[in-house]
Amino acid sequence: MHVVDLRSDTVTLPSPQMREAIFRADLGDDVFSEDSTINKLQQIAAERLGMEAALFVASGTMGNLISVLTHCSRGEEVILGDISHIFLNEAGGISALGGVFPHTIPNQPDGTLKLEDIENAIREENIHFPHTRLLCLENTHNRCYGGALTPEYTASAVALAKRRGLLIHLDGSRIFNAAVALGVDVRELARGVDSVNFCLSKGLSAPVGSVICGSKDFIARARRIRKMVGGGMRQAGIIAAAGIVALEDMVERLAEDHKNARILADGIAGISGLATEPERVQTNIVYTDLVDSAFTDEEFIKRLAENGLKLSHTGPGRFRMVTHYGIVRSDIEKAIKSLGTVMQKTV
Asked: Which residues pair with 167 in a beta bridge?
């Protein structure tokens, strides 16, 4: 049986061009900065994001961890959303490994943080308080239907951070999805931030890796932190080669994923017992809630798997589906049919 896997865009397999690039990659020791393929990837990434320098890392979680640890000292504070990926899904790394205190404020439905909430969260100078050092944004926002933060919003947040003496890190795991959805150059979404992390292994379809971008000084310090957390890799050009193909060939095709996600959301909206919000789908992430059903969440997942559909369970009665490279229109139609078939059996 053909299985439609919508658990995440991390399940993509490398394209034929990526496999060829992996096979032919020129390699060296990256801890000594001698892997020419990694050096090329880092140069391309920095140029694409409008930054001075870049650093290849193993994952998005590692990229965010290294960035926060580079910006903050132990006992300092970072302001971030209460449903941000760094806060919810990265094993508490900034606290456990860096001694950095997370100060959460509410994410709005579109993934933004209210500017007044950011302003009010910044600590006064007082021996009882940690120093507020860093503001983190997320674009696109994973838990907010893949909402894309606009250049105008980011510029406002950057202006506030700079006025109050804060650094700003952008978790841009799917920032190229945001750029394509908004029809803007990706540089506009990172303008003014002190660092940005983006994933090669999600919508861009590479098998492994993320990239941190920032100033030359920031990247030099981040390289040391990368080594400290065990991220210094040797002939890693063998995986970076696919990242080069991702940046050169896989960005514009993200629009296809966005179209498929909206078709999926529209289809789900017509299924009794499921609730979704198609109007919120900007990029490649769709959420649905199981309502008025005799099924438990576990039974729902099991029955969908029996009907050839995999999705992610993100909370009580809540599920996520992510479109990606390798998913075509017929897969979307099958997913909608599988959901409808399972829900007909709940009555």
From this structure: 134
Radius of gyration of the chain from its Cα atoms, rounded to whole angstroms: 21
Please tell me the pTM assigned to this model: 0.95
Which among 97, 7, 28 has a CA at the least distance from the CA of 236? 28
- Kindly state the tokens that stand for 127: 């021996």
Please write the tens of the pLDDT for every residue from 193-215. Answer: 999 999 999 999 999 999 999 99
Cβ pair 149, 139 in contact under 8 A: yes
Of the candidates 331, 319, 264, 260, the residue with the CA atom closest to the CA atom of residue 290: 319
Phi, psi values for residue 211, rounded to 5°: -135, 135
**Rounded-to-integer distance, Cα 224 and Cα 240, Å:** 19
Contact 296, 313 (CB under 8 A): no
> How far is the C-alpha of 239 from the C-alpha of 216, rounded, in Å?
23
- What residues contact 323, with CB distance under 8 A and at least 6 apart? 6, 9, 257, 258, 260, 261, 264, 284, 286, 332
Place of tokens 């992430």: 285
pLDDT of residue 271: 95
Tell me how far apart the alpha carbons of residues 96 and 86 are, in angstroms, rounded to a whole number: 13
291's tokens: 């309502």
Q: If DSSP states are collapsed to H, E and C, what string results for the chain? A: CCCEECCCHHHCCCCHHHHHHHHHCCCCCHHHCCCHHHHHHHHHHHHHHCCCEEEEECCHHHHHHHHHHHHCCCCCEEEEECCCHHHHCCCCHHHHCCCCEEEEECECCCCCECHHHHHHHCCCCCCCCCCEEEEEEECCECCCCCECCCHHHHHHHHHHHHHCCCEEEEECCCHHHHHHHHCCCHHHHHCCCCEEEEECCCCCCCCCCEEEEECHHHHHHHHHHHHHCCCCCCCCHHHHHHHHHHHHHCCCCHHHHHHHHHHHHHHHHCCCCEECCHHHCCCCEEEEEECCCCCCHHHHHHHHHHCCEECEEEECCEEEEECCCCCCHHHHHHHHHHHHHHHHCCC
pLDDT digits (tens, 9 = 90+) for 176-194: 999 999 999 999 999 999 9
